[in-house]
Amino acid sequence: MISINEDCINCDMCVPECPVEAIDMGEAHYQINQSLCVECEGFYPEPSCYAVCPVDAVDIRK
Ligand code: SF4
Ligand code: SF4
């Protein structure tokens, strides 16, 4: 499961990187719609939101 934590500074960098438009603004910071996120399988070798985040606000939990 990929999720965005409270360290998110709302920089917007991950939003255009998501191939399935699963990232949108939540109450305080960006969040990932779990019903849309495919963990980038079939698109990229690793979750692209994780790869681009400058502040390590994207968590990957197996
Ligand atoms: S892991 Fe990939 S599909 Fe899931 S939210 Fe991040 S960029 Fe989008
Ligand atoms: S790239 Fe990281 S800090 Fe920027 S909006 Fe996405 S999760 Fe938040």
UniProtKB/TrEMBL annotation:
4Fe-4S ferredoxin-type domain span: 1-28
Pfam families for the chain: Fer4_7 (PF12838)
Keyword Metal-binding: yes
UniProt keyword Ribosomal protein, yes or no: no
InterPro entries reported for this sequence: 4Fe4S_Fe-S-bd, 4Fe4S_Fe_S_CS
GO molecular function: iron-sulfur cluster binding; metal ion binding
Domain of life: Bacteria
Record key words, sorted: Iron, Iron-sulfur, Metal-binding
Name by which UniProt lists this protein: Ferredoxin
Organism: Idiomarina fontislapidosi
Organismal lineage: Bacteria, Pseudomonadati, Pseudomonadota, Gammaproteobacteria, Alteromonadales
